[in-house]
Amino acid sequence: MKQVSYDLTNVIAMSDNDSDFVKLMVHTFIKDIPRDLERLAVAVSEQDRAGVHRYAHRIKPTLELFGIESFRHAAALELWGKSDVELNIKEDFLRLNQNLSEILIQLKRDF
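== Hpt domain-containing protein ==
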């Protein structure tokens, strides 16, 4: 049995069990998330709060929709981006990036 780090229950429910729609959503995820992660990485390295907020805010609901637990790291990044709170966001980004890299491999394998 393959171990997966995502849960498509919400995507399937949203699609009304339309397998073509689910595949489209997965392929969109595979296409868009790496680009957004790259932009988020630049914003994190530059300590660009507005950029971190923008890209974390952009990916967080998608991660929630796909049942990906690391949406919590995206939420922490988003919070940092819209506040003056001093946090070590690099750790959250590294965990988010590693987790999503593994999930992208799993989704490509499964779809």
